[in-house]
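Reading a protein record of the kind used here takes little practice once its layout is understood. The fold follows as a row of integers, each naming the local backbone shape at the matching residue. With these conventions in mind, the following record can be read line by line:

_____
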Amino acid sequence: MELQNKATALWSNFLNVKMVQIRTFHMTWFAFFSCFFAWFGIAPLMSVVRDELGLTPDQIGWAIIGSVSMTIFARLFIGWLCDRIGPRKSYTWLLLIGALPVMGIGLSQSFETFLLFRVLIGGIGAAFVITQYHTSVMFAPNVVGQANATSAGWGNLGGGVTQFVMPLLFSVMVVGFGFSEAVGWRLSMVVVGVIIFLTGIAYYFLTQDAPDGNFDELRAQGKMEEQKNVTGNYMHALKDPRVWVLFVIYGSCFGIELTVNNVAALYFMDYFDLSLVTAGFVAASFGLMNIFARTLGGLFGDNFGALWGLKGRAFWLFICLFFEGCALMVFSQMNVLFVALPSLIVFSLFTQMAEGATYSVVPFINKKALGAVAGVVGAGGNAGAVLAGFLFKNVIDWSEAFFILGVVVTCASFLAFFVRFSTRQEDEERANFAAANIETLRARAEKANAALEEGLIAVAQKNGAQPAE
């Protein structure tokens, strides 16, 4: 059953937070930003943690794998939970509970306890699924790609911001407040955990599940399928081969981004002899591309969809993924900083555009089990990161690991051609797309008429005339 009153425009209403769709958009990207920041908050401080806890390269590799492994299961579960209780409650509980291990990692005194908390923190990575779910139910087909891509991209931005903010926060704790390094990195994570907790409270009071209300209300009014059908729809979605193709594809873009977020600071410190703070700033350039790169992926996905339908969205996904793989292979061969950095940025551009392109396709796979599809595909990103993480467990040189990943991504790009849609669905979505565009034009016309009337009234009043009733 299709939810009604989805927003047909994003940018023209961007600051109109009175609209529940826009208010939810801003809350959901900020919540994901906070989660992503906390998820990888420890990564730029790993050199300090490594020295204090005496971690070996093999143990660091396990920490990298652990940080993304938990998220696979969390994303599979959270997609089902969104369909069942709605994104508002799901996000609130995830943020409140997820704040505990973020703060708790400061209690680590050994590799085992550090790994435990690192794994538990990975659970907040499921925030991505709720973000994509919430924007998908709030925005119409003509803008859903760019809404999904922008909310996720700005959320992923947390992975870039944390690369330079956490070293600075750590420096403030050590230099400004006089704490030891061992205490400084722990208190830095406590600060992040508090922010996550407060964001969870705000999310509950400032959002709602859908444009017309919360899921409980809509089900009571007969405007949504009952909870009892959620599990059945979930299992049906799991049988769709397109879901698993997108699972692999997302592992080839978002999985690579997660891996780079985990290893970039150490890579630039060890291979280019940079300091902790400088390596953090360089590594941050990869994540900071999320300001616009992922949005471009979704925006062009919508444009390709307007021109060539759903198959156009899939073709755009192939283009992004193919060039991501090529760019990664080029980056892996760079050994001078002034050429490594530009190649990193180009690689980042196509990686994040591929992510946006993926989730410009996801909302159209199975609307009755949107949470299931979003969750499974999102879990693919973490599965890809887990597999990629094994290449960085001191088995081979890290530059060779990047080259191998580039080859894998390039090959995976051709899977996009297996994401196909029936003629009936293509026709239905073209009609929905056209209807959304008509609604956008109608809204713009109403605004223009209102502005014209105000202008005429102002002119009449200036000339001392009374406007006609």
The chain has one domain: 11-421.
